[in-house]
Design a protein that fits this description.
Pfam families: KH_dom-like, MMR_HSR1. By secondary structure, the chain is α/β, with parallel strands linked by helices. It has 14 helices and 18 strands. The protein is elongated, with a radius of gyration of 27 Å. Bound molecules: guanosine-5'-triphosphate (2 copies).
Length: 437
């Protein structure tokens, strides 16, 4: 089970500082060139061998400097609903304020373990002031004086926090959940699609920076499907001049692509598959990503019952040997097949992680090979003895044979086609290697 710790409290008490201390990351991802700053409000942490996630609910809900009652309520609701442990942060320098009391009143009565964390206790003298917070009377635990800025006191706090977890937690709660990215030329409807998804109910929204500085992962749960959208939206803001737009859109695509498992290449139905789209698709294949094509703005096409099939056929022709890429027709504005698009992306992910048992693989493929064996080369017979799927992240099949160097490209394509016919690898690049045996 995932353990979740939520941080609540009024502005400026040091919630983000504590958050960053817990997830051991720097405050924000800052971009020196343009001042694009992206705070993070969700991250993974570990203490004494227990894993947990931290949400800074304040960073998540506050839109302005003022904290209104509704904001407090939202923040507390999020914490109470999502968290296993709540950290209510107050400030030793300011002492108890009316806003703290307002928060306390909302938190009162929660069944979740609630800790009052008295931040900015930079020295002994300040740490002595924590007593006044006991008057709130909302927590069964002792109050922990800490200084998030230096980290002092956080160890003692965490010792108690992790005792509240029922299990060890999950090292990477996002493991096994498809990371999907939406790429495509400007104006095809990428943002509209994201917004349409955002319009639906969702569980925790997690803006999490990935290993690449600008990539943001947002985790969704929609119609029972769990998935993460990777985006590098931050980078878009800094493109001011024309050349920059081109450059950054390429950079952005590359980075987003690296961070994802499945790439949705979105195209405009009124323009069809363009050279740039083909480049993007090749890039995704080269990077061993799952790929699908989403033909958006389908509402703008004048059509009869044959149109979709015809356009699809034309596209498949253009895709050549990559005809295994699935194509879906959508209208984001008319909310047509939006969910199916996500469903298709998660299916592609399933295919990408598919493992075929060696016995099954041999049963089927050795028969196919017998029907059409690799052609002899310079009088030498090539014998494929068996095949196995390698334990890699993407489907790779190793064919063991006597003379691997003599097998030519067309035969490899034959094998790939037989693999695809017998097992579902729709949307997934499949690799074939030969080994000497
Ligand atoms: N003296 C002292 N200052 C601290 C400490 N921790 C945080 N601060 C300062 O308190 C100020 C507010 O910190 P933040 O972490 O941004 O506070 P926040 O609660 O996230 O604020 P919002 O984002 O407005 O909700 C910053 O100037 C921090 O440097 C501490 O342990 N001691
Ligand atoms: N008719 C129609 N218009 C759409 C559809 N989806 C998006 N649009 C419109 O297309 C325009 C561009 O949409 P965006 O979502 O901003 O496109 P984008 O791909 O995010 O664009 P960039 O931010 O430039 O990369 C907007 O005016 C949308 O309203 C659709 O399915 N049908």
């Amino acid at each position: 089970m995932a353990n979740i710790v939520a941080i609540v409290g009024r502005p400026n008490v040091g919630k983000s500082t504590l958050f960053n201390r817990l997830v051991e990351e720097r405050k924000a991802i800052e971009d020196n060139m343009s001042g694009v700053t992206r705070d993070r409000h969700y991250g993974h942490a570990q203490w004494s061998g227990k894993f947990f996630s931290v949400i800074d609910t304040g960073g998540y809900v506050t839109g302005s400097e003022d904290v209104f009652e509704a904001e407090i309520r939202k923040q507390v609701k999020l914490a109470i609903e999502e968290a296993d442990v709540i950290l209510f942060v107050v400030d030793c320098i300011d002492g108890l304020t009316d806003l703290d009391t307002a928060f306390a009143n909302e938190l009162r009565g929660t069944k979740k373990p609630l800790f009052i964390v008295a931040n900015k206790a930079d020295n002994r003298e300040k740490a002595m002031t924590v007593h006044e917070f006991y008057s709130l009377g909302i927590s069964d635990f002792e109050i922990f004086p800490i200084a998030s800025a230096s980290g002092s006191g956080t160890g003692e706090l965490l010792d108690e926090v992790v005792k509240q977890f029922v299990d060890e937690g999950i090292e990477d709660p996002d493991a096994g959940i498809p990371k999907i990215s939406i790429l495509g030329r400007p104006n095809v409807g990428k943002s509209s699609f994201l917004n349409a998804l955002l319009g639906h109910e969702r569980s925790i929204v997690t803006d999490e920076a990935g290993t690449t500085r600008d990539a943001i992962h947002t985790r969704y749960k929609l119609f029972g499907q769990d998935f993460i959208i990777t985006d590098t939206a931050g980078i878009r803001k800094k493109a001011k001049v024309k050349e920059d737009v081109e450059f950054y859109s390429v950079m952005r695509s590359l980075r987003t692509l690296e961070e994802s498992d499945v790439v949705i290449v979105m195209i405009d139905a009124t323009r069809g598959l363009e050279a740039q789209d083909i480049n993007l698709i090749s890039l995704a294949i080269k990077n061993n990503k799952g790929v699908m094509i989403m033909v958006n703005k389908w509402d703008l096409i004048e059509k009869d019952h044959k149109t979709m099939g015809k356009i699809k056929d034309d596209m498949v022709d253009r895709l050549g040997e990559n005809k295994w890429i699935p194509i879906i027709f959508t209208s984001v504005v008319e909310k047509q097949r939006i969910f199916q698009a996500i469903e298709l992306a998660t299916k592609v992910y399933e295919n990408k992680t598919r493992r075929i048992a060696t016995s099954k693989l041999n049963d089927i493929l050795l028969q196919e090979i017998e029907k059409y064996p690799p052609p002899a080369w310079k009088g030498k017979y090539i014998k494929i003895k068996y095949v196995t799927q390698l334990p890699t992240k993407n489907p790779v099949f190793a064919f063991f044979c006597n003379l691997p160097q003599y097998i030519k490209e067309p035969y490899t394509r034959y094998l790939e086609n037989r693999l695809r016919e017998n097992f579902n690898f729709e949307g997934v690049p499949v690799k074939i290697v030969y080994k000497n045996k």
